[in-house]
TrEMBL record:
Family statement: Belongs to the LysR transcriptional regulatory family.
Ranges of residues in domain HTH lysR-type: 1-59
Entry superkingdom: Bacteria
SUPFAM superfamilies cross-referenced by the UniProt entry: Periplasmic binding protein-like II (SSF53850), Winged helix' DNA-binding domain (SSF46785)
Species the sequence originates in: Pseudoduganella aquatica
Protein name, as recorded: LysR family transcriptional regulator
Keyword entries, A-Z: DNA-binding, Transcription, Transcription regulation
Alphabetized GO MF terms: DNA binding; DNA-binding transcription factor activity
Length: 322
C-alpha cells in the first residue's frame, strides 16, 4: 500500500464531502478512490467513514486521523509549492566551477557584475585546474579552456585563447631576445605541466599559415597557469602564456611580447552545463549573462591562425585547463 497516496485520497474525500467529487479532482474513478480508502481502513483495522447511499460522515477514528494528518499534508503542499516557485526565484545559490586562472581574471568580475544586478544571488565557486564533473560536484555551471567537454553537456565557446610568447625585461637584458622560433632552443624557457596527466604541454606555434606543436626544453615547469606567469614576470625564463593572462602585463611593460607572428587561437574557453528544462531562473539568467559579457573580457588577437594542424594528434592538452 502506498501510504502517502491513500492518506492523501482520504483527506481529499473528507474535504470534498464525497467520493465522486474527490475522484473527479484527483482524475480517478470513484471506485479507485473507494478502494484506496478501504485499503487504509484495513491497514489501520478501523472504519474511517460511516457510509450510506445518501450520506457520508467520519467515524471517531476518522476524525482523529483527519485532525492529525491534515496539517502534515498542508505542510507538504507548502513545501512542494515553495520548491516549485524557487524555479522562478532569482534568490539562491549558483555553484560554479572554473580553472583557477580563468576564475581569478575573468569569472570574479562576471560574478561581481551579475550580483550588482541580482543582489539576492550567492555564488559558490570551485576554482581548480582539473576538469570538474557537474553531477558529482553538484555544479550548476562550469568553465574550461582548450577543447569543448566530450560529455553529454551543453557547451558554449565564450572566448578565444591566444598564446603569446613572453619574457620579462629583466630576462631580455640578461639573455637577449630570440629572433626566430629555432633560437628558442638556446634560451631558458618555462613550461606548463598538464595537471591531470603530469605531461609537459608542447608549445603551439603558427608557422607558414599552419599550426605546429614543439617540445621546448624548460628550466622550470608548473602545474598552474598563474605559477608559470609569475615565473616569467620574475625573469625565470621565456614562456608561452594565454593572452588574457599576459595582456595587462604587456601593456604595463612588465612583459614583452616576442615573435608575435607565431600567435595561435586554436583553443577557446567554454562554458558548460547540463541539458535541463527545469533549470532555476537564476542559473539560466547567469548563463545568458556570461554568454553576453564574457567575450568582451578577452583581448583581441592580432594574428589569428587559419590553416591545418601539422604532424600532431587532434587532441592537444590545454595550458588553461585539462
Amino acid at each position: 500500500m502506498d501510504t502517502s497516496r491513500v492518506i492523501t485520497l482520504f483527506i481529499a474525500v473528507v474535504r470534498a464531502g464525497s467520493f465522486s467529487q474527490a475522484a473527479a479532482e484527483a482524475g480517478l474513478s470513484p471506485q479507485a478512490v473507494s478502494k484506496a480508502v478501504r485499503q487504509l481502513e484495513d491497514s489501520l483495522g478501523v472504519r474511517l467513514f460511516h457510509r450510506t447511499t445518501r450520506s457520508l460522515s467520519l467515524t471517531e477514528e476518522g476524525e482523529r486521523l483527519f485532525e492529525l494528518a491534515s496539517p502534515g499534508l498542508r505542510l507538504l503542499d507548502e513545501a512542494l509549492e515553495n520548491v516549485r516557485n524557487s524555479r522562478k526565484d532569482m534568490d539562491g545559490v549558483i555553484r560554479v566551477a572554473a580553472p583557477t586562472s580563468f576564475g581569478n581574471h575573468m569569472l570574479i568580475p562576471l560574478v561581481r557584475d551579475f550580483q550588482d544586478l541580482h543582489p539576492g544571488v550567492q555564488f559558490d565557486l570551485l576554482l581548480e585546474d582539473h576538469f570538474t564533473d557537474l553531477i558529482d560536484a553538484k555544479i550548476d555551471v562550469g568553465f574550461r579552456g582548450g577543447n569543448p567537454p566530450e560529455r553529454n553537456l551543453v557547451s558554449r565557446r565564450i572566448g578565444d585563447i591566444g598564446l603569446y610568447i613572453c619574457a620579462a625585461p629583466r630576462y631580455l637584458e640578461k639573455h637577449g631576445a630570440p629572433q626566430t622560433v629555432d633560437e628558442l632552443a638556446a634560451h631558458r624557457c618555462t613550461g606548463f605541466r598538464q595537471p591531470n596527466t603530469g605531461r609537459l604541454v608542447p608549445w603551439e606555434l603558427r608557422i607558414d599559415g599552419g599550426t605546429v606543436y614543439k617540445d621546448i626544453p624548460t628550466v622550470a615547469s608548473f602545474n598552474t597557469v598563474e605559477g608559470e606567469v609569475q615565473a616569467v614576470r620574475e625573469g625565470v625564463g621565456i614562456g608561452q602564456l594565454a593572452a588574457y593572462m599576459a595582456e595587462a602585463d604587456i601593456a604595463a611593460g612588465r612583459l614583452v611580447h616576442l615573435l608575435p607572428h607565431t600567435v595561435t587561437v586554436n583553443s577557446g574557453v567554454y562554458m558548460y552545463y547540463q541539458q535541463r528544462t527545469q533549470m532555476p531562473q537564476r542559473v539560466r539568467q547567469f548563463i545568458d549573462f556570461a554568454s553576453e559579457r564574457a567575450p568582451g573580457l578577452f583581448p583581441k588577437i592580432k594574428h589569428p591562425t587559419i590553416g591545418v594542424t601539422i604532424g600532431v594528434s587532434s587532441t592537444i592538452a590545454s595550458r588553461t585547463q585539462p
